[in-house]
């Protein structure tokens, strides 16, 4: 039934795709695959246990494998695994530097963030953060924000000097982070606290909090900054808030939703226990399709495809 519905919607032209030149990918941990879901493509075998994925500016994706202590680089255009690096720790959260030359990796068991060369896997730097670093997000100025889950705070790292320059206390078990397009607000989803925090990135002060209940796991922001999207594992929903953190609606998705990303006017939600990705039309705030993917989808990324000749070296 889901497949028929997805096909009917696609044929009707009502499923909005990503921005032209972008591809949305999902990693499936149990299935060991990386799958393009918009535009849709065949699943790519990438090895056992990828839990998170991050897109770089050079047409490549970084994947974290916490169980096998590995970080991989995948070429988006071909789907080829171009490098596989051993990692001395438990890699989870990822962020790629603006020039694509480095990957920042949160070491879940080592309570640190490690900077790796994306070409060789060599360690270029390391900085101590809080306990169990989960989500990572990098801003345009080169500041890295880290959700320190068991320290109940966000660490702020200056990537130029590999130093922690601040911490911001938030609720219980911060897990996912997202910046708005202007870069002046950081949104923090707290999976055990059941709430969402807004942080002013200039002052590193909490400027808003929304009580959501359940288990907020993933967070994303619409391209115009007007909508904040939060997945809730416990209820199988996507909560939509406005920029003031006032609730707008809740959209039913699959079971145990985790990652969420936005491309254009469409959001994509990884439903871990349903082995699917929900496609959400943001103008109407409705689920327009639910696409089957590999077993255990968790992380999503939006990759801007690039001609290899234009990639930074």
TrEMBL record:
Residues 1-21 form the signal peptide. It comes from the Bacteria. NHL repeats lie at residues 133-160. The keyword Transmembrane helix does not apply. InterPro entries: Host-pathogen_enzymatic-act, N2O_reductase_N, NHL_repeat, WD40/YVTN_repeat-like_dom_sf, YVTN_b-propeller_repeat. The keyword Transcription does not apply. Keywords: Repeat, Signal. NCBIfam families: beta_rpt_yvtn. This is 40-residue YVTN family beta-propeller repeat-containing protein. It comes from Methylobacterium gossipiicola.
